[in-house]
From TrEMBL:
Keyword Transcription found: yes
Sequence ranges assigned to domain HTH luxR-type in this UniProt record: 86-151
Source organism of the structure: Streptomyces sp. R39
Region (Disordered): 189-230
Annotated protein name in UniProt: Response regulator transcription factor
SMART domains: HTH_LUXR (SM00421)
């Protein structure tokens, strides 16, 4: 197995004129983390149907129903570039897995990938499982996000999300004066109008284990109310 050079997805980027709402970026951040609608709803303290509606509106605006492609467009359009990267050891992909990964990011199904690469569907499924395993990804969209974070996919036009890894896999970030991206752990403020944490904060809270469920929030609120009336 060899480390493939990062490659950009050669295609017309859908949704170039589309402007997602702050809430949609929050939901897309959850998708990029590999979370389900229920998990995203619990984290953002909103109803599950609201998450599904936001996903549907986002897909309609981008012209795709594939969540992996939504994440790819999110990185290509700069909506997710401040999402804090998830630490991983050095990721190794074969050339074939790299091509399958590109097809996944383009929103293609296993059958479409098989037709494009002249492979059997079962072979494609095997490659997809390998990709998910090597990235330690929960779902295809999660694998695409990790691929952008670790240089296996490039921003459309050739720009790579550049993260330098310590030997243990923890990311560090050089300053803008050195030509590197700003620290992705910085809170992205595009969703501030909603009064909730942004996409970057959404991710950071989960990585650091700081996620608070709705039940915990209700418990805290009840304790606070009891304390105020006593």
């Amino acid at each position: 197995m060899t480390i493939s050079d990062p490659e950009s997805i050669v295609r017309t980027v859908p949704g170039q004129a589309y402007k997602p709402t702050g809430r949609q970026v929050q939901v897309l951040s959850g998708i990029a983390r590999g979370h389900t609608n229920a998990e995203i709803a619990d984290h953002l303290d909103i109803a599950w149907p609201t998450v599904q509606r936001q996903v549907s509106l986002l897909g309609r605006g981008l012209g795709t129903n594939a969540r992996a492609e939504m994440v790819a467009v999110g990185y290509e359009q700069g909506w997710l570039t401040n999402l804090s990267p998830e630490p991983r050891e050095r990721i190794v992909l074969s050339d074939r897995c790299q091509k399958v990964l590109q097809c996944i990011a383009a929103g293609k199904s296993n059958e479409e990938i098989a037709a494009d690469l002249y492979l059997s569907v079962n072979t494609v499924k095997t490659h997809v499982r390998r990709i998910l395993g090597v990235f330690r990804a929960r779902r295809r969209a999660h694998a695409v996000a990790l691929a952008y974070q670790h240089g296996h996919l490039c921003i459309h036009g050739g720009e790579v999300l550049r993260f330098v890894n310590w030997p243990g896999g923890l990311p560090r970030h050089r300053g803008p004066e050195e030509g590197w991206l700003p620290d992705p752990a910085r809170t992205w403020r595009g969703a501030a109008s909603h009064g909730r944490e942004s996409g970057a904060a959404y991710a950071s809270a989960n990585v650091l284990g700081g996620r608070t469920s709705r039940q915990e929030k209700r418990t805290r609120l009840a304790k606070s109310s009891d304390g105020g009336t006593s």
